[in-house]
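Practice problem: predict the structure.
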Amino acid sequence: MPRAPLAPKDDTQLVPFGVRCYRTACQVLLGEHAFNRAPTPQEAAQVSRCMRYLRDDLIPPAAWLRKRLTDFGHTRLVQRFNYPPLHFAFSEKRYAEAFEHDMGWKDDLNYTSYIFGPKARALLGGKTEKTGGGRFPVQTDSLVVHNKVSLEEAIKESKEIQKELNIRVSMGEYVWGINLS
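Answer:
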């Protein structure tokens, strides 16, 4: 799965990118369809400023939004709102405060993760080998007959999935989780 992208270098893309990331975070992490309108000029200015800070500090907006959605769960706002308001998610004041304190959250999404499509999962049902801290499928003759899936088919499917994920991430839709069944 692609790593969380940094904010775009083009200032005109900061607000659309940030709002898409915010919407997908609310949908996947909270199960809420959030903010289905265009931001007001004041909201757009706030999102743009916060996104510039994130870009300048090389912090993926998805890492910041995950932190803010977690923070939201510990506030009284959850009694009034199903998802954090846009101004809460992109608060410059909270960003400045967070930047002065523990910054461990900024690397939360800076790891490699793997997504296995149906064909790769069929191979995983068989024998695996541990290599460098991870388990990977090992194809055997009996596995091919049993699952009727070849390693080449699984690799082809994985490349197609990777291409789709890369496109989605480049558009600002960080892929928080995905169901490929």
